[in-house]
UniProtKB/TrEMBL annotation:
Membrane-spanning residues: 12-29, 49-67, 110-135, 167-194, 245-265, 277-297
Family note: Belongs to the insect chemoreceptor superfamily. Heteromeric odorant receptor channel (TC 1.A.69) family.
A Pfam family of this chain: 7tm_6
GO biological process: signal transduction
Alphabetical list of InterPro entries matching this protein: 7tm6_olfct_rcpt
Name of the protein this chain belongs to: Odorant receptor
Bilayer topology annotation: Multi-pass membrane protein
Alphabetic keyword roster: Cell membrane, Membrane, Olfaction, Receptor, Sensory transduction, Transducer, Transmembrane, Transmembrane helix
Subcellular compartments: Cell membrane
Length: 370
């Protein structure tokens, strides 16, 4: 996922090949969706819709990594430069940096485990059901990784060799692509937002000690100018993140509503009971998938709002210069304006939106159950 300029050409070719390799699975799912619609098979129609939305989202993210490669590269180059500067900060600042890195790594590991379990549940469950049926059932049958109709093959033929094995291998490959994309691209957003929170905490710490060991007005004014510069850099960084990931954020919003409602509907259906268990994991993973950006962005908003309290507690009243006191008032006023992440200027991500998504998803679930 990392836009390395030295391998930019190879990377674009590889991403193009991945898109082409996933497209047949999307076509098969769309064809199956069409057949389910003609048969008025609502349960399987919803099941295929879940896969179609997932694969479409994967293709969109792959395309974003190509079309936004320059912006993403600039974003991560800036983060790398910041971490080089952090190496020369005092010990208290170093602790903030180490804590942020630890949290970022922990979150990546948790999300990696969740996606590993969710993605592997499809082939693992299909394999277990097939083995159990072969060993203990009077009428043994094979289970596909994802049940769907296949072009030019009858229902009986797709379970025969070598078609069944080819479809199984291809399905596992598609699952692997989905796993890589949902961990790699989404991880880039987490790293970026964690970095915003870190920069806010660092200039808040600068603000806390702004009047310490500073008896002359010029030194204090230089520190205020440095704070304003750092604050502007954070605003610019937030703008860059929104530009790189705004389409992805909209996709998460739509994906969470549709996928959660459909997964809950699939769990409670009486069709395909043997494989419906995977949708428990799917629903949980989808909810966590939208919860994480909402939580991380809310953390940025909280840290930015805390700047006002830090500024008010920074012993500014001990300074006699009126202009400096006015600057502190402006800093407090500016900090009281909430920092928000907007996708395409319409969708604001925060914990309130997360609750709203869950409510809408449940409404969709009740609608599908009728």
């Amino acid at each position: 996922m990392y836009p390395n300029p030295r391998t930019d050409g190879k990377r674009k070719i590889l991403i193009g090949c991945l898109i082409l390799s996933v497209s047949p699975a999307l076509m098969l799912a769309c064809n199956d969706l069409r057949l389910r619609f003609l048969k008025n098979d609502m349960a399987n129609l919803v099941r295929q819709s879940i896969i179609i939305i997932c694969l479409t989202f994967v293709i969109i993210k792959l395309m974003i990594t190509v079309f936004r490669s320059n912006e993403i590269r600039a974003l991560f180059d800036g983060i790398n430069e910041d971490y080089e500067k952090f190496n020369y900060l005092p010990e208290e600042y170093q602790q903030l940096v180490a804590e942020t890195i630890k949290k970022s790594k922990s979150l990546e590991k948790i999300w990696l485990i969740i996606m590993s379990v969710t993605a592997s549940s499809y082939p693992v469950l299909a394999g277990v059901c097939t083995l159990y049926s072969m060993m203990f059932s009077d009428n043994p049958r094979r289970f596909m990784v994802h049940e769907m109709e296949v072009f030019y093959l009858t229902t009986e033929q797709k379970y025969e060799s070598p078609y069944f094995e080819i479809l199984a291998i291809y399905s596992i490959f598609v699952v692997g692509v989905v796993f890589i994309e949902f961990t790699g691209f989404d991880g880039m957003f987490s790293v970026s937002v964690f970095h915003v929170s870190l920069k806010i905490k660092i200039f808040s710490l600068n603000l806390k000690y702004m009047f310490v060991d500073a008896t002359d007005t010029p030194t204090i004014k230089k520190r205020i100018a440095k704070f304003v510069k750092d604050h502007c850099e954070v605003s610019r960084l937030i703008g860059e993140i929104q530009k790189c990931f705004e389409i992805w954020l909209v996709g998460i919003f739509v994906n969470a509503i549709l996928q959660t409602g459909m997964a809950l509907s699939q769990i409670t259906t009486n069709v395909n009971k043997d494989i419906n268990g995977v949708y428990y994991l799917f629903a949980v993973a989808t909810i966590i998938h939208v919860y994480l950006p909402c939580y991380l962005i809310s953390d940025v908003t909280y840290n930015a709002a805390e700047v006002a309290n830090v500024a008010y507690s920074s012993s500014w009243e001990m300074v006699e210069d009126v202009n400096i006191k006015k600057c502190i008032c402006l800093i407090i006023t500016k900090a009281q304006i909430p920092i928000q992440f907007r996708a395409l200027g319409m969708i604001t991500f925060n914990m309130e939106m997360f609750v709203s998504i869950l409510q809408t998803s449940y409404s969709m679930y009740t609608l599908l159950r009728k």
